[in-house]
Amino acid sequence: MVDGSWTSTDQFSGIGWVWKDSMGNIQLMGTRNLRRCETSLHSELEALKWVMESMLSMLQHSTCQRFETDCKDMIAKIKDPQAWPNFSTELEVIQILQMCFSDFKISYLPRTHNEIADSLVRNVRSFHRPLCFIGCSIPVWLPRPPQV
């Protein structure tokens, strides 16, 4: 599950992901903030790029091929990148990363089912310094999402 968070007033955008196994148990999660992206959709694309890169670097431990997002616009752009020239740079990187997955799939997940990733990215966006975290559980200094 992947998510991005953006506002026009915050200094940072938040991006993050939660990797669950086939039984629905959290195996790993990641969250980080970046200088504020141009738009909310840019934040979503940065989040997908980061989770894909993270899964590739852990491929010996991960069989991840399926990604879920609550952003229907991002799915549309990934499925038809030529129709979105304003996002060509970001979409080209995503296309290159897709080739590294033997059975890449991205699907829609309602926000109500993406609460952990959504909470992680909203919280990390508010930190006033660069932050990056990957781990199996939420650190004590980060507010706990609702379903953990």
TrEMBL record:
<dbReference type="Pfam" id="PF13456">
    <property type="entry name" value="RVT_3"/>
</dbReference>
<dbReference type="GO" id="GO:0004523">
    <property type="term" value="F:RNA-DNA hybrid ribonuclease activity"/>
</dbReference>
<dbReference type="InterPro" id="IPR002156">
    <property type="entry name" value="RNaseH_domain"/>
</dbReference>
<dbReference type="InterPro" id="IPR036397">
    <property type="entry name" value="RNaseH_sf"/>
</dbReference>
<dbReference type="InterPro" id="IPR044730">
    <property type="entry name" value="RNase_H-like_dom_plant"/>
</dbReference>
<dbReference type="GO" id="GO:0003676">
    <property type="term" value="F:nucleic acid binding"/>
</dbReference>
<dbReference type="InterPro" id="IPR052929">
    <property type="entry name" value="RNase_H-like_EbsB-rel"/>
</dbReference>
<dbReference type="InterPro" id="IPR012337">
    <property type="entry name" value="RNaseH-like_sf"/>
</dbReference>
<feature type="domain" description="RNase H type-1">
    <location>
        <begin position="2"/>
        <end position="122"/>
    </location>
</feature>
<protein>
    <recommendedName>
        <fullName>RNase H type-1 domain-containing protein</fullName>
    </recommendedName>
</protein>
